[in-house]
Amino acid sequence: MTLHFPSVEEARRALDAPLYADLAGDLNVSFEFFPPRTEKMDEQLWSAIETLTPLGPKFVSVTYGAGGSTRERTHNTVARIAKETPLAAAAHLTCVAACKDEIAEVADAYWEAGVRHIVALRGDPPEAGKRFEPHPQGYQGAAELVEGLVQRHPFEISVAAYPETHPEAASAQSDIDNLKRKLDAGATRAITQFFFEPDSFFRFRDTVAAAGIDADIIPGIMPVSNFAAVQRMSAMCNTNVPNWMGRLFEGLDTLPAARQLVSATLAAELCRKLYAGGVRDFHFYTLNRAELSYAICHLLGLRPEKSA
Ligand SMILES: Cc1cc2nc3c(=O)[nH]c(=O)nc-3n(C[C@H](O)[C@H](O)[C@H](O)COP(=O)(O)OP(=O)(O)OC[C@H]3O[C@@H](n4cnc5c(N)ncnc54)[C@H](O)[C@@H]3O)c2cc1C
Fold this sequence. Notes:
Blueprint: H1 8-15, E1 28-33, H2 39-52, E2 59-62, H3 71-84, E3 89-94, H4 100-112, E4 117-121, H5 142-152, E5 156-161, H6 172-184, E6 189-194, H7 198-210, E7 216-221, H8 227-237, H9 243-249, H10 256-276, E8 281-285, H11 291-299
Parallel strand pairs: 1-2, 1-8, 2-3, 3-4, 4-5, 5-6, 6-7, 7-8
The structure holds flavin-adenine dinucleotide.
């Protein structure tokens, strides 16, 4: 056997960096789910919620299918979380293919079900690749939707933000101006699109601060369970997938357990670097699976609440 002796600097770098040792766990986390389509998916969702609940998330949210296709399912899932769990439930809501009256109806139903937090989005058209066309009697975009929602009920409102700029934005600056409009209209925090390099977030945070925005900007963390799918999604939403990431997932297509470990390692490292840069709030795109998000939270020092 040949032993390879690392350089002194390399050895010191590894040994001096107990990346995850004894972190304080002083985090606020939130978890995003999607509404299940089948009974089996329903079981998976509720099992994920059960596993993640003891971590005491600040809120959990449920997405709204493209084109409003999951209106009922999103409502039922959010309403059930609000009714049957101790969690603060947030409902995603979009402007696609709905007039203002329909959106008001959806918002009223949430208010009646005890849901007090909306993630307000413009939404994407039902067919991927097509441009967003506002409904003739609908909202033009998320900023208008926020205005409409706060006039109707005093909801807590989160909106979307894009560290690498939304693909349809005229410029990075106009995208920031739009974020400011959404916050000025009554949103209290922004959750970002997923990204894979901490610098994307840090640069964005600086630009946002320079624009006079002081609302919380929460990084959206996507643990990669299926690299090919994430590549496709990233291309659509303007997220840069670094070349080294592709190389790391090479050869793992038929090794799901190894892929999970690689995935958790990468996402945990991203979070650890964000934490080192002062980030204390993290929003996880769970894809209705608890393990990766739970493991990352655990590495960052978060432990189940004693009372949970
Ligand atoms: C955390 C998060 C959760 C999401 N959840 C869902 C979901 O549940 N369901 C779903 O369908 N999609 C969801 N999405 C995707 C989102 O709907 C898309 O990214 C959509 O294309 C933009 O939505 P928005 O709310 O950011 O739009 P907006 O804020 O309205 O912006 C859309 C685009 O228009 C530009 N723009 C807006 N107003 C102006 C103006 N006055 N002048 C010039 N340019 C302007 C913006 O810069 C941007 O490019 C989510 C995204 C994120 C980050």
